[in-house]
Design goal:
three-stranded parallel beta sheet, binds adenosine-5'-tetraphosphate, Tyrosyl-Transfer RNA Synthetase, mainly alpha
């Protein structure tokens, strides 16, 4: 029996290099060795203000993005969260075992409620409980995510433990799997790469767009002139080299930076070429999928069908344990 993996991304418009390195590249590594379920978490995306008319297109685009990044639907299950209504049902059961104080402590809740101070809803507070339900509905043991999501996976473990203590051992305690791109900083070199901060490179950007964005990105702040020696260890551009460039190239760039043998623009040029090379197949597959709506809908339908079956089984078990089955 392969261990089960679950992860998801919100359909909020754009897949960026942070999502790719923090999550999707790690998903692809697990395709052949694990039973992988990847979700488009639309119910999470509606916890902040959004445009309903745009949502159907965003969901399809997220699915196309997954597939374009190498999440091969023949080797895993891809589905849309709201197509399997048991996610919200299980979240409600979990709401009855998890204290409110646990949720009020969540970093993402604090950040998002500051960001959307006019829109601090129950959905925003309850986000991690729904996320626990997403994972535990499938009794997934491994959750590949970026560092920002580790606290939520810890909460999912708390939920599983509390439910099991109260009603019997139904749920495994899932573990976060954080890969080498755990926390990608944005082009400002300070905050996490994210859509809302507009400090990202999208996975579908052209080589020209990648270069345009990188050319103004922040490097070692102490290196002011071309002739100054730099420190790759504090340079965000070099941290991206670590994820996109070969070991030999990293060593040459680091040496060139430390000795002022190369300038920041030279260093960025090499990085831009390497990112563009790795993302070229993603961009091409994404463009090819544009005209294949029926194919994508088929993948999502099939995914919802398989997930619905597993979900119904778990819900039956949970209800029986809770005394809700007659
Ligand atoms: N900068 C990042 N570095 C590493 N991993 C990241 N992830 C997101 N940003 C980074 C990982 O991507 C997965 C999807 O998370 P999400 O659906 O919560 O993505 P997101 O939060 O919508 O991405 P943004 O751009 O950060 O959204 P906004 O700006 O709306 O808050 C997760 O595994 C996450 O860890």
């Amino acid at each position: 029996m392969k261990k089960r993996v679950f992860s998801g991304i919100q359909p909020s418009g754009i897949l960026h290099v942070g999502n790719y390195l923090g999550a999707i590249r790690n998903w692809v590594e697990l395709l052949d060795t694990h039973d992988c379920i990847f979700c488009i978490v639309d119910l999470h995306a509606i916890t902040v203000p959004y445009e309903p008319a745009e949502m159907p297109g965003r969901i399809l685009d997220a699915a196309a993005g997954y597939i374009a990044c190498g999440v091969d639907p023949a080797r895993c299950t891809i589905f849309v969260q709201s197509d399997v209504h048991e996610h919200t049902e299980l979240a409600w059961y979990f709401n009855t075992v998890i204290p409110v104080a646990y949720l009020e402590r969540m970093t993402q809740y604090k950040e998002k409620s500051a960001q959307f101070s006019e829109h601090v809803t129950m959905g925003l507070l309850d986000y991690p409980v729904l996320q626990a339900a997403d994972i535990l509905l499938y009794k997934a043991e491994i959750v590949p995510v970026g560092e920002d999501q580790v606290q939520h996976i810890e909460l999912a473990r708390d939920v599983a433990r509390k439910f099991n203590n109260r009603y019997g051992g139904i749920f495994p305690e899932p573990a976060a799997r954080v890969g080498s791109g755990a926390r990608i900083l944005g082009l400002d070199g300070q905050a996490k790469m994210s859509k809302t901060l507009d400090n990202y490179i999208a996975v579908t950007e052209t080589p020209e767009e990648i270069w345009r964005k990188l050319s103004t990105a922040v490097t070692d702040p102490a290196r002011k002139r071309r002739t100054d020696r730099g420190n790759p260890d504090v340079c965000n551009i070099f941290s991206l080299h670590r994820l996109f460039s070969s070991a030999g190239e990293q060593a040459r760039v680091a040496e060139g930076c430390r000795t002022a043998g190369i300038g920041c623009l030279d260093c960025k040029r090499i990085l831009a070429d390497n990112i563009a090379r790795e993302l070229a197949p993603v961009r091409e597959r994404h463009a090819a999928l544009k005209g294949k709506r029926d194919f994508i809908e088929g993948v999502l339908r099939e995914g919802a069908c398989r997930c619905g079956e597993i979900a119904r089984g778990t819900i039956r078990e949970a209800k029986a344990a809770m005394g809700l089955l007659r």
